[in-house]
Design goal:
The protein has 158 residues and is α/β, with parallel strands linked by helices. 30% of the residues lie in helices and 22% in strands. It has helices at 13-25, 51-57, 93-101, 123-130, 148-157; strands at residues 3-7, 28-31, 79-87, 90-91, 108-115, 135-136, 140-143. Helix 1 (13-25) crosses helix 5.
């Protein structure tokens, strides 16, 4: 099954896990990039004036413009794994912006959260509700420190 991993990584954590899964599944990778990249100061969720804090408080600001949503060979993928950090119990908004911008058609879609301590919660269900199409499956959360054995076990279950 031709598989694509679409991921947004604010720091290196999600990217690292995405690369591990891609290696295990022989999948292709597509990185979601905001048109205006987040700085370290932007990501300081404890600072009430930071970008993510302001976006969290105002849902309209969460509609993050992306560099592109055009995935080469999109129509050829049967399975898509969407990966993201968890921000305030939901998927990071750049990944949400991607999900609402494309048509998943009849692709099998797996939401995968990567976080230090936040649970998956209903983030995968929220993405599925916002998406156009897709056969959305139950999501999973990996710690940013997940090891190869844990990744392999999950990949083998697909």
């Amino acid at each position: 099954m031709k598989t694509l991993i679409v991921y947004y990584s604010a720091q290196w954590h999600t990217k690292t896990i995405a690369e591990m899964i891609a290696k295990e599944l022989g999948a292709d990778l597509f990185e979601v990039k905001p048109a205006k990249a987040y700085t370290e100061a932007d990501l300081d969720y404890t600072d009430g004036s930071s970008r993510v804090y302001r976006e969290h408080k105002d849902e309209e600001l969460r509609k993050v413009a992306l560099e592109t949503t055009d995935v080469p060979g999109w129509d050829n993928y049967e399975r898509v794994i969407v990966m993201y950090p968890v921000w305030w119990a939901i998927a990071a908004w750049p990944l949400s912006s991607f999900v609402t911008s494309v048509d998943f058609g009849d692709k099998i879609v797996y939401p995968v959260a990567v976080s230090h301590s936040s649970p998956l919660g209903k983030s995968g269900e929220a993405l599925a509700s916002a998406a156009k199409g897709g056969n959305w499956q139950e999501g999973i959360r990996f710690s940013q420190d997940a090891g190869e054995a844990e990744i392999k076990k999950w990949a083998d279950s697909l």
